Amino acid sequence: DIVIGVLALQGDVREHLVALAAADAVARPVRRPEELAEVDGLVLPGGESTTISKLAVLFGLMEPLRARVRDGMPVYGTCAGMILLADKILDPRSGQETVGGVDMIVRRNAFGRQNESFEATVDVRGIEGGPVHGVFIRAPWVESVGAGAEVIAEHDGHIVAVRQGNALATSFHPELTGDHRVHGLFVDMARGYRTAASL
Ligand code: GLN
């Protein structure tokens, strides 16, 4: 079995656990460094990125998270989770740190305020069977990516999904749609990584 954790400090943890289970992974909440050490991959959920960042520091998880991402652990961030994976935030709030790992600059709340949240169909490179339904809730967009990162989806001329090696990030929330293809892609990435590691 492939074991995928969901960082469970704040945000839509339960929805990711359900989506991962539907994508044939064993899904577990992760709150402590010992729990982080036991997963094959990790999801950083949507929520509020400053809050998650501060709680990660408080729970002693920030350095272990950075270390595992640096080591190549597969990681998938949605919305606030995408912000946490960015090497740089354009407009960080004070005390807001990121885990980093993806060579991209994100702009928080880029699509507007809470009441400007919206849904749209999005073509994602690597996802078969047509576009996904993108739910954007006070979503960030990616201003720019570095040479190592691949843009895999755009909306209205803005980058909304990026992949770099074993890291995946989306501005939108597939965990809220009942369509588990993006989680399936991530679980496949984690399986591939574990297979390669055991060869
Ligand atoms: N606006 C939130 C942030 O900056 C992200 C919103 C979300 O995860 N849906 O953290």
TrEMBL record:
Active-site residues (renumbered): 79 (nucleophile), 173 (charge relay system), 175 (charge relay system)
SUPFAM superfamilies: Class I glutamine amidotransferase-like
GO MF annotations, alphabetized: glutaminase activity; pyridoxal 5'-phosphate synthase (glutamine hydrolysing) activity
Pathway: Cofactor biosynthesis; pyridoxal 5'-phosphate biosynthesis
Entry keyword Acetylation: no
Positions with a binding annotation for L-glutamine: 47-49, 108, 137-138
Entry keyword set: Glutamine amidotransferase, Hydrolase, Lyase, Pyridoxal phosphate
InterPro entries: Class_I_gatase-like, PdxT/SNO, PdxT/SNO_CS
PROSITE patterns xref list: GATASE_COBBQ, GATASE_TYPE_1, PDXT_SNO_1, PDXT_SNO_2
Described purpose of this protein according to its UniProt entry: Catalyzes the hydrolysis of glutamine to glutamate and ammonia as part of the biosynthesis of pyridoxal 5'-phosphate. The resulting ammonia molecule is channeled to the active site of PdxS.
Family the entry assigns: Belongs to the glutaminase PdxT/SNO family.
Complex formation: In the presence of PdxS, forms a dodecamer of heterodimers. Only shows activity in the heterodimer.
Cross-referenced HAMAP family: PdxT
Name recorded for this polypeptide: Pyridoxal 5'-phosphate synthase subunit PdxT
Organism whose genome encodes this protein: Streptomyces chlorus
Taxonomic classification: Bacteria, Bacillati, Actinomycetota, Actinomycetes, Kitasatosporales
Gene this protein is translated from: pdxT
